[in-house]
Amino acid sequence: MKAILLAGGKGTRLRPLTIHTPKPIVPIFDRPFLHYQLDLLKRVPEIDEVILSLNYQPRRIEELFGDGGDSGLSIKYVVEPAPLGTAGAVRYAGESLRESVVVFNGDVLTEVDLAAVIALHRERKAKATIVLTPVDNPSAYGLVETDAAGNIQRFLEKPKPDEITCETINAGIYVLEPETFERIPKDMPWSIERSFFPSLIERDETFVAYVDRGYWIDIGTPEKYMQVHRDVMDGRFHAAPFAGAASPASITWVAPGARVEDGAILEGPCFIDDATIVKAGARIGPYSVIGRHCHIEERAVVEGSIVWANTRISQEAVVRGSILGRHCHIGRNATIQNGVVLGDKSVITDHSRCTGMSHQPLATSHRP
Hints:
This protein is an alpha/beta fold and 368 residues long. It has six helices and 31 strands. Helix 3 (85-93) crosses helix 5 (192-202). The longest helix has 13 residues, at 222-234. It is elongated, with a radius of gyration of 22 Å.
């Protein structure tokens, strides 16, 4: 069985982080995001190959994952000649497929039981099966209505309060029959949500829902990207190095090759990657993630922030609730706070102040 992973987007909602780093390989702690999706696919032994549908900076992704040997799954790369939309990408990547295929959106992190989804698809002899997830605020999403038997009835985009009839939304995970791909026009943009799925309903074909009430999040915004790290550190999503800990929220995880000097203060949960130096008097506060080869100088403070590799935070600088890309330099006594997102190689000079627009609490994942 094959899986198609739709990873061709430009990650515009995560810019400037994704200008030089395609969204599938933005780091979650010390691993590219795509690894977490491959981990989920590996739980289904019959999935023997993953087809990565790419468009934006495909070489960066292929250089990192190769033929998939290191990930335990065979990986095939298909590069769209131009953006084809979600349905167009599926047809282009799955042109030669003749058996049921799992399709995954490239920005979804979940612990759904894929084997159970596939089993339901086969049991119902469905043309398509879609995973749905419940949300607290359905008006911000497109709703998916089902009948009592789990058949898809309707898609409703951004409903008004008086139009909300359910709480379930498209989770971006499908099992599809390739025989249906012929209705997708070749070589032109086509939406799986707005065109392909409605065609199944119009033709009265078997189109069923699998409702998953476990963990699910779309990492495509800075707020959600930060939330994923918090969820791992709080034990809401199970991933290394915090998985299995009795009290993950108390862990201060320091890679063996990192150096934390005497007098530095670490407050859990936090994560410090390999070859990073934290100088005496610096403080790493809760929910901070420091990448490889970073340098946190004396009396610098990092709280609730994500710092990518090779970044230097100078003496007495403060970084709170923000994301810093690779190779950034934060000058002495500078302050970065309230949701600032800096792209790679950003330089903030001494004594500067950068404050984001967001004063809202971090977004929460849909389910604990």
